[in-house]
Amino acid sequence: MREIPATADIDLIRRVLPHRQPFLLVDKVRDIVPNESCVGIKNVTMNEPHFAGHFPAIPIMPGVLIVEALAQTASVLVGLSLDLVDKDPLVYFMGIDKAKFRRKVVPGDVLELHVEALRGGSKVWKFRGRGVVEGSNAVECDFAAMLDRRGE
Predict the structure, then answer these.
(1) 75-102 pLDDT per residue, tens
(2) Alpha-carbon gap, residue 91 to 141, rounded angstroms
(3) What pairs with residue 42 in β-bridges?
(4) What is the distance between the alpha carbons of residues 37 and 135, in angstroms, rounded to a whole number?
(5) 54 in active site
(6) What pLDDT is attached to residue 64?
(7) Which of 141, 112, 144 is nearest to 129 (CA)?
(8) Nearest 10 degrees: Cα torsion 51, 71, 91, 118
(9) Tell me: the pLDDT tens digits for 21-60?
(10) Confidence class for position 1, pLDDT limits 50, 70, 90
């Protein structure tokens, strides 16, 4: 039986996710419990392209990108849980529910992306996600995604 790592650095993340800069929104994943949960880390910096227009005088990470970062974290969990490293899987959003935005995420923040699998193991997965900065919830939502193992 293969061993699933407890953490994923950027190199392993890139072997699971198809995303690349400027749309790769997860720097590290830790506390990986296969098929159950993990925590992604996003180091928010002023160098990110969305800050040029959202908003130039008061840079705030768009909520939709925080939700995307949660989804990318969930995709790493799925990819590692199902041994999809180097197999080019795609995970597509199917729905986002109960999204609530609680605080701004700004350059200099370390955004923790807490993801819990509510249902999974096959093609359709459901998750609960929370974006946390300094112990305070920035966003919370439930979301569903579909796994596409291209070529299978």
Answers:
(1) 999 999 999 999 999 999 999 999 999 9
(2) 17
(3) 111
(4) 18
(5) yes
(6) 97
(7) 141
(8) -170
(9) 999 999 999 999 999 999 999 999 999 999 999 999 999 9
(10) low
Percent of the chain at pLDDT exceeding 90: 89
Q: Which of 19, 50, 54, 114 is catalytic?
A: 54
Domain-by-domain residue ranges, the chain? 10-148
Fold (topology level) of 10-148: Thiol Ester Dehydrase; Chain A (3.10.129)
Q: Judge contact between 107 and 46, C-beta under 8 A.
A: yes
Strand 124-133, strand 90-101: pairing: unpaired
Please give the Cα distance from 140 to 4 (Å, whole number). Answer: 27
| Tokens encoding 113 | 């992306």
b/e 97-133 (16+ beta carbons within 10 angstroms → b): eebeeeeebeeebebbbbbbbeebeeeebbbbbbbbb
What is the three-class DSSP state of 128?
Answer: strand
Cα distance between residue 48 and residue 74, in whole Å = 22
* Confidence band for 121, pLDDT divided at 50, 70 and 90: confident
CA–CA gap between residue 59 and residue 61 (Å, rounded): 7
